[in-house]
Description:
Elements: E1 11-15, H1 23-30, E2 34-36, E3 42-44, H2 58-66, E4 76-78, E5 80-84, E6 90-94, E7 96-99, H3 110-118, E8 126-129, E9 142-143, H4 149-167, E10 171-175, H5 179-187, E11 191-201, H6 208-212, H7 217-230, E12 235-240, H8 247-265, H9 272-282, E13 286-293, E14 296-305, E15 309-317, H10 324-339, E16 344-346, E17 360-370, H11 373-399
Helix pairs in contact: 2-9, 7-10, 8-9
Amino acid sequence: MTSPETRDTVHLSIAAAMADIDKTAWDAVANPGWTVGPGGAIAADDTASEPFNPFVCHDFLAILEEAGTVSARTGWMPRHLLLDGPDGSLAGAVPAYLKSHSQGEFVFDHGWADAYERAGGRYYPKLQVSVPFTPATGPRLLARPGPGRDAVRAALAEGIVALTRETGASSAHVTFPTEAEWRLLAERGFLPRTDRQFHWFNEDFDSFDDFLATFASRKRKQVKRERREAVAAGIEIERLSGAALTEAHWDAFFKFYTDTGARKWGRPYLNRRFFSLLGERLGERVVLVLAQREGRTIAGALNIAGSDTLYGRYWGALEEHPFLHFEVCYHQAVEHAIAHGLARVEAGAQGEHKLARGYRAVPTYSAHHIAHRGLRDAVANYLERERAMVAAETEYLAEHAPFRKGGDEEA
């Protein structure tokens, strides 16, 4: 496969597994300037100019494949796009999958698929550029910073279109890219789409109480009350990382995860082996929050840490207690971020209830290449209206954040 714009200087190829890609080379374009050591310890050199994103590192993507959660059998066939520079070294890459369904993406195109197939088309396979099962913003057109980055990204965008054509896919979907990548893809003819999530931002808070001081009085009292009531039944909460994680902890959490997954998706996406591999290879990036009552672990939330962001991923519980979900998922994440100087918490998909806990509505992005002209035009029309709606809703939600406004009482 050759990029039409740069065919004299670069070469595009496909890897069918992360195991076929050199780890050091991949990480050099996925998280330039960062190294991932044993257990997921990270270190930056003087060239690191951007935060470390754990989900695009070689270890995380390889764990998904090695555990068997990402494969042709599960409908996620790896087709990673690699771009070699003039010297033969890896200059860019794209985590990509040929898919036979639309599950585990968190950017919903089921309606597009239904409409196209009712009209006689074949929507699947499609090409998905993403981190499977992970609605977290991060780089998708992986390239080192510098004057040549835009050219590499443009070549990767062309490569996505070429791969779509060569695999007979109906479309390509780049989900949760950075805003800069989203704009570049739109300039290359991809259809831009927006959605929203709720993220928490650290304004140099010294403590959780310092953060709560930014709330209006009534909202502040509400959070304090729900934190007290969450543990009123004798519940104790701990946060675990690295060597503190044991297989017993993963056994307990897997029960929570499968219960939630069965109720939300019908079938959990991840298997038990995934969590063991995660703890083994990236345990230093894990923040596992567990709640115990009378010696029994009853609830938990899994977070993954980058260099400046804590990403909330999964939650589950065996017992129902008032406000325990908010405590384990949201308040504990904020406490951890403050204690470790992290800039933000991304709490995952959906959930307007996060607003009252001090998380702010922010846009997320996706970009879509659709080969069929008629379907493309219909989707483009829909997305234009959807973007306006998302922008209006995000503005409305910002006006209803729990923070103090001018004249609000301090007490």
